[in-house]
Amino acid sequence: MKNIFVIGSVNTDITLTVSRLPQLGESVRGNGILTAQGGKGANQAIACAKLGGERVHFVGAVGTDERGDALLKSVSDYGVLTEGCVRVHGAESGICVILFDEGANDNMLVVEEGANALLSPDIAEAYLKKNAKEGDILLVQLEISSAAVQAALKTGKRLGLYTILNPAPARAVEEEIFKNVDLLIPNETEFRAFTGIEANNSENILRGYQILKKKGVEALIVTRGRYGSTYVGEEQFDVAAVPVKAVDTTAAGDTFIGALSVCLAKGSGMKEAMLFASRCASVTVSRKGASQSIPYRDEIIG
After folding, report:
1. Tens-place pLDDT, residues 226-251
2. Edge-to-edge strand list for the sheet holding 183-184
3. Which pTM was predicted?
4. Per-residue pLDDT reduced to its tens digit, 36-47
5. Residue 281 and residue 26: Cα distance in Å, rounded?
6. Which of the following is catalytic: 136, 182, 248, 254?
7. Is 254 a catalytic residue?
């Protein structure tokens, strides 16, 4: 099985459950609080490890505060290799406040990047050069600096890795980043941000893919929540979502991407990988929390 390298963020997540989201200037009463490890990079690395990845490497940055110690331990406790993580002196570890609207089964997030924004491009590049080999999987998101993202993808591509970018959260990035992406995995909001097109039907997704392909992206998967996911590359096809009553969607996308990466690392075809990823994500949304809501492989395959 191929190695999986995840380069990204790690945060302390503070989730506040509310019956509805407040208006500007309004206070609402909370219905529960949950503090846990989060961050898209760490969540995706943990998803890879829980769902069958044999050697999952995580490269990220924390501060020298106590939360940094707890964050690295929480990630490594799942079997993720964290030797590539660094501590940034004088920085606070990242934090994310999540308002979960239990009425709408949706959420809003506020992220303070902290040390995540200070992950050096040199660290990511050096770790890949030392540990990665041709054919391994590289997974990157946008909760670290554009310079670190670009360095990781460029190095990964040069070393012959299969490069995956989850462009979340959507923000302005250098066009150069897309030139080194084998597979782009946005949700509907992110797809619209990078193409200007609504991902509400197959024709629109194909139009958006053609825009992204001109920028250098080889293949695309758009995740669409309860509407499933769509792949466009050498072919185009849809994979239906697994019907489930959603409790918390916080880590659904991270689970999907982690599960997909594991399947690709094992040599599965894309449709098979997406079907497995959809099953995994359906379990995640039926539970509260981030990494703790991600299922283990034996929960899915029995």
Report:
1. 999 999 999 999 999 999 988 888 78
2. 56-59, 4-7, 137-141, 162-166, 183-184, 219-223, 229-232, 236-239
3. 0.93
4. 899 999 999 999
5. 33
6. 254
7. yes
